[in-house]
Amino acid sequence: MCGGISAALGLGGAATPATTAAYHCGRLLSYTLLGAAAGTLAATPDVAGWTLALRYLAALLLIAMGLYIGNWWFGLQWLERGGAFLWRPLQRLAAPLLPLRRPREALALGLCWGVMPCGLIYSALALAATRQSTLDGAATMLSFGAGTLPAMLLVSVGATRLQALLRSRGMRRAIALLLIAGGLWSLATTASHSEHLLHAKASQHHH
Question: Quick one: pLDDT band at residue 31, thresholds 50, 70, 90?
């Protein structure tokens, strides 16, 4: 989805290297700031008790992300519809920036990117929140953004053959299965941690 929008925004052959770099820097910065905010919020005393719930949510969203990428289930679209309410005001702010001509315009557009209606971004944010740390949350989202760079850069430079490889059914399914496996592993480890906490509380109660 992001690749298609990037192409529509004129990040193909007409964009200069400086504009392309500024856009992606803004995009990664928007992810990092959102991750820092999510990690900070989850670290507050009132929210810290929901850590296990956040871990379960992040694991389920990771599985949903895999199913989404594999074109097997599109449940994440309801998150995207909700996020559209946040994106609409920013669309009005972003409109004067197009078409992108200068690096500062590209940077500003990239900064808006983090709140676009995208279930993949929201899934990564849930994972960042489980870190319960400003720095760790920021690092999680920065890693997520860095992971999207290869595909997004290919769109920017118009590498048609490599884009086709990344969009091929086999590649999408391989990535999807890895995400689903990661989500299942996260569910299993969280369930094990929950059981350990319950045993520890029961032991303290008996003593």
Answer: very high
